[in-house]
Amino acid sequence: MIRTRSLLSDGSRLRRLGPLALPTLWGAVAVTWKLACPLAQQPGTAMRVATSVVFFTVGTGLVLGIRCGPARELARVRAIAHATQRVLLRPPPPRLDGLTVAAGQLSASRGAAVGGDLYEAIATPYGVRIVIGDVRGHGLAALGAVVAVLGSFREAVHDEPELGGVLRRLDRALGRHLRERAREEHPSRAGREPEHPAAEEFVTVLLLEIRADGEVYALNCGHPGPYRIGGSVEAVPVGDPLPPLGAFPLPDELSPYACTRLLPGEALFLHTDGAEDARDAAGRFFALEAMLAQAVRDAPVPPAALVRRVHTALLRHTGGRLADDMALLVVRNDRARVPAQPAEPGLRRTRPSPSPHR
Which pTM was predicted? Predict the structure, then answer.
């Protein structure tokens, strides 16, 4: 195993040094020619010009080789980051049980395609279940918590009939991750996992369950509530907030809050706090609710177009300098209205015929 790792490391080092091989070889030949060739020792303007051209060519080749190597390495790292994002924050299906869904994410870490925000939407026998969350911190350091929460959610939503059971599964998965991380950073002499992970690590989470009749139930662990978009834009209450996952134990009773009913044609706009906390150069916050109202004032906007429009407005407001990760998710109820059906012929009420005496 050690020999295999050494060979892989040597191969990686050789690939990085590959672009410098030809300029270095050419430089060695130029130096040898200058020092050993009698013709190169002759005085004269022509020979000095030829020598300058040779060494300028060598220098240019070395500079290009040094620049091309890191550029290729950066392109490779970005490709890996995008592949990681597709696995962790995979795009939700455009249709889920009659709902249209779209999502997107922006990372505050320069050059990173993933961050500390998470989202997922899955159709289950209990309704369409959605999670959106925000890990304390951002960038690649928060990926471990994202993996723990999303992995647990993708299994628990199918197994747990109650939304509270899903939340407890997420809390247990995050607790295991934080204990393992604390053990790696501060190994215990007894070889046991620490009983309490680092107190500064936590995840805010909003769980939603959209049932077949459009009723929406929520469990909120310190996360911003969504906006309902219909004829107008209004904030949706999500009940008294629970503590963020990983910060404090969950209470014994977890009762989902019946927060709203999503009628056909209406949408829910979910976001992390990075969207509302974004500031411009003058320190002014991004007016998310006003922007949503403006976006849907003229005509209904498809969920994917709304996500793109908000992303563009956020980048314009901040000048591209994001202070925090942000994730957006829009779900619209496109379940067809059931038209009123005529009564069966045998059940149709008949009007009484007028009395002949009248």
Answer: 0.70
Measured distance CA(224)–CA(219) in Å, rounded: 11
Asked if 245 and 210 count as a contact pair (C-beta separation under 8 A), the reply is no
Fold of 91-333: Phosphatase 2c; domain 1 (3.60.40)
pLDDT in tens, 8-28: 445 555 455 555 565 566 566
Quick one: pLDDT at residue 217?
A: 98
Beta bridge partners of 124: 127
| Every domain of the chain and the residues it spans | 2-32+45-82, 91-333
313-325 pLDDT per residue, tens:
999 998 888 777 8
Beta strands in the chain (DSSP E): 95-96, 99-106, 117-124, 127-135, 203-210, 215-221, 227-229, 233-235, 257-261, 267-271, 326-333
Q: For residue 191, count CB atoms less than 10 angstroms from its CB and return exposed for 0-12, middle for 13-18, buried for 19 or more.
A: exposed
